[in-house]
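User: Show me a protein chain along with its predicted structure.
Assistant: Here is one chain, sequence first, then C-alpha cells.
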Amino acid sequence: MSIHSVECNVGTNPVTIETGKMARLADGAVTVRCGDTVVLVTAVSATKVKEGQTFFPLSVEYKEKAAAAGMFPGGYFKREGRPTEKEIRTCRMTDRPLRPLFPKGYLYDTQVIAILLSADGENDSDILSINGASAALCVSDIPFQGPVGAVRVGKIDGQFVINPTNTQRKESTLDLVYVGNKKDVIMIEGSANELPEEEFVQALRFAQENVTKLCEAQEELARVAGKPKRSYELIVAKPELLEIGYEIAGDRIEDAIYADSKVERQKKVGALRDEVEAAIKERHPEATDFDVEQVFEYIQKKAFRISIMEKNKRADGRELKQLRPLTAEINCLPSVVHGSALFARGETMAMALATLAPLEERQYFDSYTGGEDTKRFILHYNFPPFSVGDTGRFGGQNRREIGHGALAERSIAPVIPADADFPYAIRVSSEVMESNGSTSMATVCAGTMSLLAAGVPLIRPVAGISVGLVTEFNGDQMERYVTLLDIIGSEDFYGDMDFKLCGTDAGVTGYQLDLKLPGIPLDILEEAIYVAKKGRSDVLNVMHEAIAAPAEMSPNAPRIESTKIPADRIGELIGPGGKNIKAIQAESGADINIEEDGTVHIYASKQEGLDRAMELVTRMFKTIEIGELYTGKIVSTTTFGAFMEVLPGKDGLIHISELAEGRTVKTEDVVSVGDVVTAKCIGIDDKGRVKMSIRAALRDAKAAEAEAAGITE
C-alpha cells in the first residue's frame, strides 16, 4: 500500500490531501483534512457509454454522518435520512466547477461521492469537498482538465481571512466561496453585508492568490500518485450530418431563434428541427435522434453566437446591456396574506408571499459541522412546470429549487432586521409564474417587496440581476467576448456564463457564478460586476415606485412586542406551577415567551390582547408609588376594610374609613370580592404594607372635573 500526501498552507489551518489509503477500488480517492475535519472523496467513471445516452451523466453526492461529530441521528430509525439543505448545497457547489472541465462529448457515467468522516465543529467540510473532488479526479485515470482549488473568504475587522472557522464566521461581514484554476475563476457563491463592489473585487483577487497554492499542491499529488489517463471516445456532431443541417436550416435558423416571443421562437425552431430531422434520416437512415439533436443544437449555438458577436443582436431585439421591461406590484392578494408582491422582467415572473410568525416558529436543524443550527428567515422557491409551458412532476423540491431558494435567501438575509428590533420568524414563499431566464433574481425582487408590504423594516431593499457572456476562441486563446445584461433562457443555454449578483444601493449581498468554460480571467468577472451594478440600480428604481418603505402591518399578522424584566425575577412572572403567566395568557389571549436574559416576547392576534398582556406583565414589575392611582380587583374583605390587588402579586389595604365618603358601617356595603376598583396609594409603612384609598381617588377625580370646568373654591 503506497500512501502519498501533500500539505497546503492556506488559512488558519493547513489543508492536507492524502491518497492511497482508503477506497482504493475507486478510480480516484482522497481524504482532505483541515483541523480535525476530514472528508473522503471518491471519483468513478464508467468505461462504456450506455446505449442511447444523450447527455453527460455526472452526479455529485455529499453525505454527512452523525458519527463524524460524535452524535446520534435524530428520529425513530436513528439513521441518516434524506439529504439536508446543507448537503444539497454542498453537492451543487462541488458539481458546478467540475462540470465544464470534462471534455465536450464525454458521455460516460461519472460519479463523485464525498463523505464526512470527522467534524471538529470549527472547520466546515464544504470547501474540503470541492478540493477533494478535484484531487480525486486528478489522481484518477478519468479525463479532467483540472485541478481546481476552493477557498472561503471572510472579512473580519476590515481584513480578509482565508477559510475562517465557524467561530470567526460569526463576526465576518463576507462569506465568499471561490473556486478557480491556477489563473482563472470558475465558480463563486456566497453572501455579504452590503459589501461595496470595489471591496468585492479585492476579495476575489485575494481568493485567487490562495487558490493557486491549492492547485499546485494537487498537481504535485498527481505527479507522485496519479494514474495515466484512460482512452475514451467523444460523441460529437458528425460532419456529414452537419452539412445536411446547414443545407436545410442555415439561412432560416436566425429568423426562427429571433422571433418576438419565447412561445413563437419555440414553434419556429421546432418546425425547422423537424425539417432537419426528416432530411437527415432520409439520407442517413441509421442516424439517431441524438445525432439529429447534436446537429441542430450546434447550428443554433453557432447562429446565436454569430448574431451577438457580429451584429450585436439578441434574440428578443434588445441592446447588449438593456433590461427587459420591468413591472412591480404589491398587495396583489387579499390581506389574509401578510404581504404579497409580483415582479416581472419580460417573460420571467415571480409571485412572493411573506408570512410573519412568533420567533418560536424559527427553523431548527442538525449542524454536524458546526455553525448555526437555527434560522428565523426562510425563503422557499417553487418552480412549477407550467412556468415554462410544460407538464411534469409537481410537488417536492429538486436540487435546483433548493439551490435557487438558498441563493435568494442569503441575498435578502443581510437586510433582515435583528430579532431584538423585529422579533418575528419570517418566511417568503416564491411561486414562479413564468420562466425565461433568472427566476431566482425575480424571486429576490418579489421577495423583498413582499417583505416591505408585510411591514418588515428592511435595512434597505435588495434587487438581483444576471449577466451573461459570449466568447470567441482561437484554439485555447479567447480572442473576443461580450457581456449581456439580463439574459433570457436561450442566452443562458447557448452562452458561456450565468452570473447572478444581488445587492442594495449600498453594496453586494449575494452572488453566484456558473460557467460552461473551464475558467475566465478575473477582469471579465469584474466587468460583469459593474454591469450588474448598473442594472440593479435600474431594477431598484422600479421596485421603489411600487413600494418605497415598509407598509403598515397586515391586520392578520400576529402582533408582537417585547419588554425586559430582571433575569433573576423570571420566576415571579412564571409563578408557582406557571400560575401567574397562565393567568395573564388566559385574560389577554396572548402567548408569552421568556428568554434567559429576561426578554419577554408577547404574541397576540389582536392589538387589544397584546396591549392587555403587556400591561399585566409590566404592572407585575412596577414599584408601587405613593400618590399614584391603581386599578385592581378586590381579593378579600374584612371587618376593618378590603384588600385590593394593586399590582400582580402585590396587595394593598383599603381601610373601611377609606372606602367611601362618610361613615361606612360594613365593608360589603361598598365592595365585594371580585369588584374592580380604582384607588390611590396614600402610604407605605416601614414593613412595606401598602395603604390605599378609594375616597382619595374620588376626591382627586372631582377636583380634576371642577378644574376642567373652571370652578374654583
